[in-house]
Specification:
Blueprint lengths: L1 E7 L4 E8 L2 E5 L6 H10 L2 E6 L11 H8 L2 E4 L10 E2 L5 E4 L2 E7 L8 E6 L5 E7 L14 H4 L3 H16 L7 E4 L17 E2 H7 L9 H9 L8 H11 L4 H8 L2 E2 L1 H11 L2 E4 L3 H6 L6 E2 L6 H8 L7 E4 L5 H9 L6 E5 L2 H7 L9 E2 L1 H10 L3 E4 L3 H6 L1 E2 L3 E2 L5 H4 L9 E4 L4 H12 L5 E4 L2 H5 L6 E2 L4 H5 L2
Parallel strand pairs: 3-4, 4-5, 5-6, 10-11, 13-17, 14-15, 14-16, 16-17, 18-23, 19-21, 19-22, 22-23
Antiparallel strand pairs: 1-2, 2-3, 7-8, 8-9, 9-10, 11-12, 20-24
Helix pairs in contact: 4-6, 8-12
């Protein structure tokens, strides 16, 4: 028996590839399936089942492509309903794979079809669970995502999750390994550890939601407290995972369409495509095509695309570093953005050489910021998450997280200058690009963000001024 966790940092997501004898299974696969097919060929094994722990909201799964290309059966737990054929596993159902067995344990709460898969080894011993979004290392799945489809409140779903954990998960032996679907950085929970593997016993000791003698009422309060609204693309990804979608090869083929500089503008106008520039924030600040949105491929690219671009059906053209085109299209497809019409052939350099209009971002160093704040009293906007802001921030800065930019952007006075910063410059450049596409030119972005500012003598504080949080 062999278990391989295939972890994708950009999505903080873990897929699992398991072999026994001459058979294999894959749990919660990503959209692009070639890496899995390569492993199957390398190991000379046949894929028997594709297990899905639930309908994923934060990424588009590769279950359909895998099933079509390998003949493997797709397995969901009870209550699942799709537009394609699958096995609806009953609670406790066993699946034979080589010399091992996989047991479906229905664990509703995160969603009503959520199912944990228990791997029973060659000796008949409970070896590991693949817990999906039911149990994470340090946390449990948020219970608010399935409210609409389940016709229940988040408190009701949290109560169901409590029962699933107490009666189905915590009753397993302490040495059973826990393999979750996500780690720190995922929006599917709020307190996940950076660790991506644990044990039942360790989670009983360290996971707040599995605390001994915790009442259901306490669990509901603690699990639902502080939940941020889910990103807009979550519901769209769930629908794609239920209904089916284009093959990844089709999406990639369409996106890998080089568009020369002379045709680029026509393509944008004809398709109303959004220009997505994935170069690093320093290059974008020095020059970019007007009305481009900057979301760098080197950061949490796919989640930020999903959070800030309202519709997965949006037509997109991309500007990338040379050689990054396929990676960009692949990572967009993971969150359901399949309508990439092509990329700028030759990249931004080709646009610049052709003499077309370019735009820039007004960016200064942290040292310049320190000098200017000694003489100016302009407003300062902190784009980081609330927790980052609370830990420490520039004195007098307003907390306006990037994720909420569409809510607060209209509060900005276009006639008053302001500064923006994040942790290192990634999020602030995204915000700068959005601000400029909306017509705001009255701001300065700070290179290196708070990481750089913290090394200057700019006054800082670690407490929240409520008035700053509420109003610009």
């Amino acid at each position: 028996m062999k278990i391989e966790q295939i972890y994708t940092g950009c999505l903080a997501q873990g897929a699992y590839y398991i072999t026994s004898k001459d058979e294999a299974i894959i749990i919660d696969p990503l959209r692009e399936i070639m890496p899995y097919r390569d492993r199957l060929k390398r190991d000379n094994v046949k894929l028997k089942y594709i297990f899905e722990t639930h309908f994923h909201a934060d990424f588009v799964s590769g279950h359909l492509d895998l099933s079509i290309q390998t003949g493997a059966k797709i397995v969901y737990g009870p209550n699942a309903a799709t537009d394609f054929d699958f096995i609806s596993a009953s609670d406790g159902q066993l699946f034979d794979v080589g010399n091992i067995k996989v047991k479906a344990i229905h664990t509703p709460g995160h969603t009503m079809e959520s199912t944990t898969f228990l791997l029973i080894d060659e000796n008949g011993k409970d070896h590991a669970i693949f817990s999906g979004d039911t149990l994470f290392v340090g946390d449990v799945g948020r219970p608010d995502l399935a409210q609409k489809s389940a016709s229940m409140s988040q408190d009701e779903l949290a109560g169901i999750l409590f029962d699933s954990l107490r009666t189905k998960i915590m009753t397993l032996n302490d040495d059973v390994i826990v393999y979750p679907a996500h780690g720190a950085g995922s929006a599917c929970g709020k307190n996940m550890s950076k660790e991506t593997v644990s044990t039942i016993g360790e989670q009983k000791l360290k996971n707040y939601a599995l605390r001994h003698n915790m009442s259901k009422e306490e669990f509901v309060v603690e699990v639902t407290d502080g939940l941020l609204p889910p990103p807009a693309y979550f519901g769209m990804n769930v629908a794609m995972n239920k209904k089916g979608l284009q093959s990844f090869e089709t999406v990639l083929s369409k996106g890998m369409n080089p568009i020369n500089v002379l045709d680029f503008e026509n393509t944008i106008n004809e398709t109303e495509a959004l220009i997505l520039d994935t170069r690093n924030n320093g290059e974008f600040s020095k020059g970019h095509i007007p009305n481009s949105i900057s979301i760098g491929i080197s950061g949490d690219f796919a989640p930020w695309v999903g959070a800030l671009i309202a519709n997965v059906e949006q037509q997109i053209v991309i500007v990338t570093e040379i050689g990054k085109e396929e990676e960009t299209i692949t990572r967009l497809s993971r969150v359901g953005f399949d309508n990439v019409n092509g990329y700028l052939d030759g990249g931004f350099e080709a646009w610049q050489k052709a003499g077309f209009e370019i735009d820039t971002i007004h960016r200064i160093t942290s040292e310049q910021f320190a000098k200017e704040t000694n003489t100016k009293k302009d407003k300062i906007i902190d784009l980081r998450r609330d927790g980052e802001y609370e830990a420490e921030h520039v004195d007098e800065a307003y907390s306006k997280p990037l994720a909420n930019i569409n809510e607060w952007i209209n509060q900005v006075n276009p006639d008053e200058h302001f500064y923006i910063y994040c942790a290192g410059g990634y999020r602030s450049m995204i915000a700068a690009s959005i601000l400029q596409t909306r017509g705001y030119r009255n701001f300065t972005e700070i290179e290196g963000g708070f990481n750089a500012i913290s090394k200057t003598d700019v006054p800082k504080t670690n407490f929240i001024c409520q008035s700053k949080l509420l109003n610009l």
